[in-house]
Please model this.
Amino acid sequence: MSTSADFKERALAALENVIDPELGIDIVNLGLIYNVELSDEGTCKVTMTLTIAGCPLTDYLNDAITEEISGFDEVKNVDINLVWEPAWSIEKMSREARMELGIH
Model:
């Protein structure tokens, strides 16, 4: 049986496959994913934010996240918890993402 830390690591790696089509960077390195948790009942709760309120990619990202996380045998449901606090900022991006976008 996998530990919660093991699951979180595997889930974050899978979420790196979800690319923001406007920026061409994955949502993990963009700093949009705040947490990933798996309940004993098999519900994976993904706590995340968006770069802006009213982002036109919300449905696309929700579908892509659900598809990636649903691929794990232990996941029965995916619950995306969209939050606005703490607010997203450029500082939440990984160093690699900032460099790729030319932000120093």
Q: What stands out?
A: The longest helix spans residues 58-70. Residues 4-91 form a domain with the GMP Synthetase; Chain A, domain 3 fold (CATH 3.30.300.130).
